[in-house]
C-alpha cells in the first residue's frame, strides 16, 4: 500500500513530475481548485488537511510568473500575494495544527543578486521584485508558524519532457527551432534545477524530514548563454546563439532582475550523506 502524501500544485511543472516519478511509492492527494480546495481559504485548507492520514504536505503551489507578478507590486489584495503569502500561511497553519511535516518549495529570488559567488542559506535575503518579496514573506510564515518545517529553495527548474508551461530549457529549444531566440545574457549567473534530479532530493526530504532551509538546485553555476549552448548541442540544433547583456537589458526595462541567483547546495548534500 502506498504512503499517503498531501501536496499543493501537484499538477504544475515540478509537482506533476514528482507525482509521475513516485506514483508507485505515494498515494497523492492534490490540494487545489480541481479537488475542491482553495489554498487562499483557510477553512477549505484546514478541512482537507484534517481529513488526510498523510504525515507530510509538500507545498509546490505558487504564482511564479515574475513579470506578471511585477505588475502587482505592492498589492496585498492581488492574486500573487494571496497565493504566495496567504496560501502558504494557511497551509503552514493547517500542517502545524494537524501535526504534519511541511515541505515548502521556495526560490533563489529571495536574494538581491548582488553577491559574487554562490548564495548560502546563511546569506541575508533581500528580494528586489514582487515575486521574490512574496516568496520571502512565505518563508517567514512557514518559519514562524511551523518551525520544524523544511524549506527547499530552487532556481530555474527545467525537465526532460515538454510541459504545457514551457520551462527554461524548452523555451530556448523552441526559440532556436523557430529562429527567434533573443540574445542570451553572458552576465547573468544561476544554478539550474533539473526537476528529475530535484525529485530525488525531495523524496529524501519526505522520508527524513530535516528541519530548516536548504538550497536544492542540481546543476553547476552557468550563464544564460552557456545554458543555451548546451541546449543547442543536446538537441542538435543549427541556429546560432547570440550573446546578450543583462546590464544593457536593464537600461530598457523597469522590472528588476537579479544578476546572480546561484545557490550553494553543500548543506543539503551534507545532510543527505549522514
Distance N to C terminus: 28 Å
Unreliable residue stretches: none
The average pLDDT is 97
Shape: globular
* Proportion of beta-strand residues: 15-25%
CATH domain class of the domain at 3-158 and 193-218 = Alpha Beta
User: What CATH architecture of the domain at 3-158 and 193-218 do you see?
Assistant: 3-Layer(aba) Sandwich
Radius of gyration: 19 Å
Number of DSSP strand runs: 12
Main sheet attributes: strand count, strand direction, barrel closure: 6 strands, parallel
Question: What is the name of the CATH topology of the domain at 3-158 and 193-218?
Answer: Rossmann fold
For the record, what is the CATH homologous superfamily label of the domain at 3-158 and 193-218?
Answer: NAD(P)-binding Rossmann-like Domain
The SSE string, one letter per element, is EHEHEHHEHEEHEEEHEEHEHH
Helical residue percent band: 25-40%
Q: Going across the major beta sheet, what is the strand order?
A: 2-1-3-4-5-10
Category from helices, strands and their pairing: alpha/beta
Count helical runs.
10
Amino acid at each position: 500500500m502506498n504512503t499517503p502524501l498531501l501536496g499543493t500544485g501537484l499538477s504544475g511543472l515540478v509537482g506533476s513530475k514528482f507525482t509521475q516519478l513516485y506514483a508507485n511509492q505515494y498515494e497523492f492527494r492534490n490540494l487545489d481548485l480541481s479537488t475542491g480546495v482553495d489554498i487562499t481559504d483557510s477553512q477549505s485548507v484546514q478541512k482537507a488537511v484534517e481529513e488526510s492520514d498523510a504525515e507530510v504536505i509538500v507545498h509546490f503551489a505558487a504564482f511564479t510568473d515574475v513579470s506578471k507578478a511585477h505588475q502587482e507590486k505592492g498589492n496585498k489584495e492581488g492574486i500573487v500575494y494571496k497565493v504566495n503569502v496567504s496560501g502558504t500561511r494557511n497551509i503552514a497553519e493547517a500542517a502545524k495544527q494537524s501535526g504534519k511535516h511541511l515541505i515548502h518549495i521556495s526560490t533563489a529570488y529571495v536574494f538581491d543578486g548582488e553577491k559574487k559567488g554562490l548564495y548560502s542559506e546563511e546569506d541575508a535575503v533581500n528580494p528586489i521584485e514582487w515575486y521574490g518579496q512574496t516568496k520571502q514573506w512565505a518563508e517567514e510564515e512557514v518559519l514562524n508558524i511551523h518551525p520544524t518545517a523544511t524549506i527547499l529553495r530552487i532556481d530555474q527548474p527545467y525537465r526532460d519532457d515538454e510541459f504545457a508551461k514551457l520551462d527554461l530549457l524548452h523555451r530556448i529549444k523552441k526559440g532556436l527551432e523557430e529562429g527567434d531566440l533573443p540574445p542570451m545574457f553572458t552576465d547573468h549567473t544561476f544554478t539550474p534545477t533539473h526537476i528529475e534530479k530535484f525529485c530525488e532530493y525531495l523524496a529524501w526530504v519526505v522520508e527524513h524530514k530535516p528541519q530548516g532551509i536548504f538550497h536544492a538546485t542540481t546543476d553547476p553555476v552557468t550563464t544564460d548563454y552557456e545554458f543555451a549552448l548546451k541546449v543547442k548541442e543536446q538537441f542538435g540544433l543549427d541556429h546560432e546563439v547570440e550573446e546578450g547583456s543583462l546590464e544593457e537589458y536593464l537600461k530598457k526595462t523597469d522590472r528588476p532582475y537579479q544578476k546572480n541567483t546561484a545557490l550553494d547546495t553543500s548543506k543539503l548534500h551534507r545532510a543527505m550523506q549522514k
